[in-house]
Amino acid sequence: MSPEVKPDSLLNAEGLRFDGRRIDELRPVQMEVGVLKTADGSASIRQGKTYILAAVYGPRELHPRHLTLNDRAFLRVVYRMATFSVPDRKRPAPSRREREISMVIANALQPVLFLEQYPKAVIDVFIQVIQADGGTRCAAINAASLALADAGIPMRSLVPSVAVGKAEGTLIVDLGDEEDKYGEGDVPLAILPGTNELTLLQQDGSFTREELMEAMQMGINACKYLHELQKDALKRSYSKKAPEGEDDDDEMDDYDDDLETDLGEADIMEDE
Amino acid sequence: MSPEVKPDSLLNAEGLRFDGRRIDELRPVQMEVGVLKTADGSASIRQGKTYILAAVYGPRELHPRHLTLNDRAFLRVVYRMATFSVPDRKRPAPSRREREISMVIANALQPVLFLEQYPKAVIDVFIQVIQADGGTRCAAINAASLALADAGIPMRSLVPSVAVGKAEGTLIVDLGDEEDKYGEGDVPLAILPGTNELTLLQQDGSFTREELMEAMQMGINACKYLHELQKDALKRSYSKKAPEGEDDDDEMDDYDDDLETDLGEADIMEDE
Amino acid sequence: MSPEVKPDSLLNAEGLRFDGRRIDELRPVQMEVGVLKTADGSASIRQGKTYILAAVYGPRELHPRHLTLNDRAFLRVVYRMATFSVPDRKRPAPSRREREISMVIANALQPVLFLEQYPKAVIDVFIQVIQADGGTRCAAINAASLALADAGIPMRSLVPSVAVGKAEGTLIVDLGDEEDKYGEGDVPLAILPGTNELTLLQQDGSFTREELMEAMQMGINACKYLHELQKDALKRSYSKKAPEGEDDDDEMDDYDDDLETDLGEADIMEDE
Amino acid sequence: MTDFSSEIISHIDRGFVADLLSKGERVDGRAFGEYREIIIEPNPVAAKAEGSAIVRLGDTSVVAGVKVLTGPPYPDTPDEGVIMIAAEMAPMASPLFELGPPKEPAIELARIVDRGVRESKTMDAKALCIKPGKLVYMVFADVYTLEYDGNLIDASSIAVNAALLGTKFPEIKLEDGEEVATGKELTLPLQNMAIEHTVAKIGNHLVIDPVLKEAMVMDCRLTMAVDKNDNFTAMQKGGGAGPISLEMVDQAMGMALDSSKEIRELITSTMKNPE
Amino acid sequence: MTDFSSEIISHIDRGFVADLLSKGERVDGRAFGEYREIIIEPNPVAAKAEGSAIVRLGDTSVVAGVKVLTGPPYPDTPDEGVIMIAAEMAPMASPLFELGPPKEPAIELARIVDRGVRESKTMDAKALCIKPGKLVYMVFADVYTLEYDGNLIDASSIAVNAALLGTKFPEIKLEDGEEVATGKELTLPLQNMAIEHTVAKIGNHLVIDPVLKEAMVMDCRLTMAVDKNDNFTAMQKGGGAGPISLEMVDQAMGMALDSSKEIRELITSTMKNPE
Amino acid sequence: MTDFSSEIISHIDRGFVADLLSKGERVDGRAFGEYREIIIEPNPVAAKAEGSAIVRLGDTSVVAGVKVLTGPPYPDTPDEGVIMIAAEMAPMASPLFELGPPKEPAIELARIVDRGVRESKTMDAKALCIKPGKLVYMVFADVYTLEYDGNLIDASSIAVNAALLGTKFPEIKLEDGEEVATGKELTLPLQNMAIEHTVAKIGNHLVIDPVLKEAMVMDCRLTMAVDKNDNFTAMQKGGGAGPISLEMVDQAMGMALDSSKEIRELITSTMKNPE
Lengths: 272, 272, 272, 275, 275, 275
Prior knowledge:
The complex is a heterohexamer, with three copies of chain A and three copies of chain D. By secondary structure, chain A is of the alpha+beta class. Chain A has one domain (about 30-265): GHMP Kinase, N-terminal domain (Ribosomal Protein S5, domain 2, 2-Layer Sandwich), CATH 3.30.230.70. Chain A contains five helices and nine strands; from the N terminus they run E-E-E-E-H-E-H-E-E-H-E-E-H-H. Chain A starts with about 30 loop residues before the first strand and ends in a 14-residue tail after the last helix. Chain D contains six helices and twelve strands. In chain D, the strands form three sheets. In chain D, strands 1, 2, 3, 4, 5 and 6 form a six-stranded mixed sheet that branches. Chain D has a four-stranded antiparallel sheet with strand order 10-9-11-12, with helices on both faces. Chain D has a two-stranded antiparallel ribbon with strand order 7-8. The chains are: A alpha+beta, D alpha+beta. Chains in contact: A-D, A-F, B-D, B-E, C-E, C-F. The interface of A and D includes residues 110, 203 and 207 of A. Strand 9 (about 200-205) of chain A pairs antiparallel with strand 12 of chain D.
């Protein structure tokens, strides 16, 4: 591992960040769909040095049975960090932090799913953080919604997510580890791209009401961009799946029919 | 918290105790019934600095089901101490001591209940020690039997309980923390007031057979007095519940009919 | 306990071991059948200073039910070491080592059982190490198969087991603690005496392929001898059970009929 | 805490609550931005805990207690004291709470209340250091739920802050490697107390301090910690998966700011001048 | 240990046992105040444990082992050794015992046996101190149940006391902060060994050392630790919720006193002169 | 890992696989002694872990990461570093794996992989000592399963060895009781890397690197760790209760020896020269 050094300043005289980014610039993001063979659906995301895998199984029978919901599927999200994904070794057992993050990720994803179509079943979303470098819960949501789509589970839309923060009084988008550690606050959020409504919202640090409103707006803008990247990733995966010689667009059209668009959002593939 | 100091002597030349009590004198006792809104029945007790809440739920369906008894209700008692109720912080998880005390409290209460009337159900008794200053298991029994009555669960009688101890060779009633710590023994007991039979009996320290007999007799006498205080507390709660202008006695008569008196005890309210 | 001292040498000039044994000589072995009254079957083994008890219950109903197998009995082996059975105090909770050894013992015993005759049931094998002085998993298998026979559970044969090791370059049979600790390797194995097939095989240390083949052959030879000792122990237990004045041989003949010999092995009692 | 809605609450209940709200009314008659009566009982555990408070929020009540111990600091923060905030959803408080190890709602409660203290930098952790790398004060604040009629978070936040404010503990020094009590009594180095405010979203309406009936039909809740300078120091959307618009978040923040000063003053006046 | 009665035992069984008792007879023919035969096997774990004993009480049997280690004392008792007594109800011993973490009956067994040692001040804890605040002897006595036919408590108490009495361990000194064995062998500082006696109440009758059939129909049991001076050093009513009168407690105490000396002598003679 | 056969796999499947093997064919067309394609991705966790590798064995894949920390040695080995190898069967990797604490198959996996490192004396534990009795390096290697199509053991063994081989960590000295980084970067003291090879027995046939379909119908498997000198340093029969003859063990050892050198070279070349 590269030893972490506290930077002299998180923002330089030109208004550029520690790692050279503009204040509203995302780290390099790579998303890939269908990366795991055994899962029903899967995706990976690399965002800066953060590296996360998401796998989806289901809808399938739920064990243990006492968790069964009679009127809808149980969306079970399990967010886990590898022991070696952080500077100090994480203890192997699930921490309270991991359990809370699993819960907020489930809340962030649930609004786009039609859980009532699968009473008594479970949809499992397993998230493994391979390397953590800030923004893992947001990156996890980006990957998990791709994995759900890859599993063929009907969705109203994908869910993009990003964290906005504050460094030396300036709002900045997509915090890396140093900005998270030495900055003044963190606002992770996720949105429904069709309505811009928030499905994840947390905050720590210290913000005025006006700063928070601006931070959330910056986050929504960044999510719009991430949503495009998600759709690109999904499109690439369908191209790969299409048998050679067949028309890729047909393949995608088929998929479109499976997607519901209740929230008035443009269909995921439409504007590609 | 007030730092604990070891007293020079637990008994003074006049035969009075560390805190000025006579050897057979209880600490100030306040019992109150119906103190928690969400529980089916509840009571609080303050005995010296000991402060305990008891809540009763049931009879209700039992989870997990494998604990179900086919011929009677399961009396489930959970005695818990708050982390801050003792001089050193108690660890949050239930200790073996708490689990054993839960068991002996259940044994102490069970003889007055008609568990066979509620096969397969559970009656839950939750006891929270807010502040511990000696005699918590006895105070818990005093409060728990009031909470059971408050929940409208038929009972043969209330169950009063007290600890008798020994300090400098003399038997003393209702130990406080210092007497428990620096004294020579402890005999917690609980009785059926109608027959004087013991439903709780434990002992530690060192006693001769004769001392133990005397200690138990002193404990029974003290329980008789505590039983009067319990009945007073129950009476007050019924007065409060009675709609204004109505006759309190009628209200109490109704209750009396619910109580069984198999053990030949005078009915709880009778001699008030 | 006798303090452990590292021996100067594990093999002396005459080719004898630390404790005077020849390289292929077992420690003194005592096996006794039917030592526990409450179990359906039981046996004890003392092998050197190793002392182990095995108890068998079943076939009986399996709890918890989700472990139930629909087409055969569940063979549940629980190998436990007493806290005081080793030089340092073992922690009371089951260790991962104990759980793994339980699993390999179950694998070692299963081939001689007719589990498919008892669908949904459990056969419980409880093993308690009272004193551990090397070779506990092998001694446990020796005792457990006697306990299974004592419980009247049909078996193709008994399962003898022994560990072969290496000290100062020489292969030696039935390691004691010091030979295990200061030697160069350990090969515990168990066999079906009728076919010489291995039902347990593990190895640590460092061996060439040729050494391993020789070690396994030495182990098989030692198992043959242990098998005779097992049969002796079983025979003694039937003698004891036979009512006085009755013919012991008849008693044993009855037992023989219960044993299956699918593997072509001579019947357990036959050559006695 | 939990989203019990689909399992326990019928559609009729949800309709009933929502209809009332459309008429500008809440189930218990309060205004949308109005808290239930808040009663703080100072120092109920005076003999054993260094600080304590019982807080009633209508028919919700909790007890918080503070223990101050000494111990070694964490290796990565050798000059800072240790602060641990926990909360327990005891089955005593509600038929909805279960026995056993804490489940997700209890973990969330504990973490939100903890974050309200930690992220607000309520205490100056460096002032809790006795000797860097060797000995620091360890402050444990634990909350037990006694009665549950909605909004445990705010009740717990008020109770923890009240208990911390009332905490008194003996000063300890390290002399020749031994811990020695100086005989002096200290209070905690409180520098920026923040109070948590929870607003429930039900349809198009926002109500502060939701009772259980409201919590059971809400789309989600937003909890906001507000400090003395009207800064937001922690926020959590939870209590259901319903999405919320930016505008409603802004409105909720306004409701929190409107309530904050009064509650802070209640805590301060009660704990500084306990009868 | 447990009150299995209503689930497993029919009323006929209870009637049968009670009828016999009315005629002055027990199910196995013993007198009411008579123990089953007690057999103590000394030092079955001689090679690994510092002390050990197997005790048979009829068809109940247990093994106890003692380990003596060194370690730091508890902060609140810097000049005292550490004494830990535990007992396990292993499923090997009975179809009634279950796999898994200890349940209430096993916890009660462990705590009663522990209390019998601790409350009797069987050992002089201060004599187990090597260097105050730094290093003490830690004495662990663990009991495993092998066969269960009633009255595990007394069997465990006898086994633990026998094992402690036979314990030998190397003397350790602290020299320049290092632990050094002096080469001398020590025995434990036993000062007041107490034996636990269990009496079962069945209807109006009291029987000592109940077998399983009696335990299953008893109203309750009373366990009493009696020391060499005939003092009672620990007592526990358990094994069912049946109440008991003062008179019967007195009678039970008499039965315990009648048995105590003989059992103590058996332990002492067996462990002091092991074959 | 587990013997799923009787519960999940029909007799038809077992017959199908066995029939193929009788014809000299495997379900995926490989030769009996042939591994699937092995792909090693070096250092996927370069920013946080001291060493790491992702290993693909056909459609089985795992990630291994190494953390090197400092801490006190175990009392009984004061001059040796601490080495801990663990492996987790995460439910992400297979519908056959369950949530919750590790069950027997996961424990066996972890212990086999650990034994392959420890028994081979892969690392010189004494070279991991910084100051005897005070401070040593602690090497933690953890494996997470990502995709499961059989033979997790060999994939994990390869991944752990690759991650250890690529590990770099800062040198620490103890100066006046304080840990100080010298600024120098170290590699692990690897002295005898052994690779684990798993052979499945199906009827009379042996196949190396079994896929899931083979694992589900196998009688048992034999895992062998082979070091650079062709010594066997660890062995485990598992994966079912089927017995195996001495001749087949010999044959399996031959198959392991035939594959070992090539895999070792792949690990070394990939990790020593990562792109």
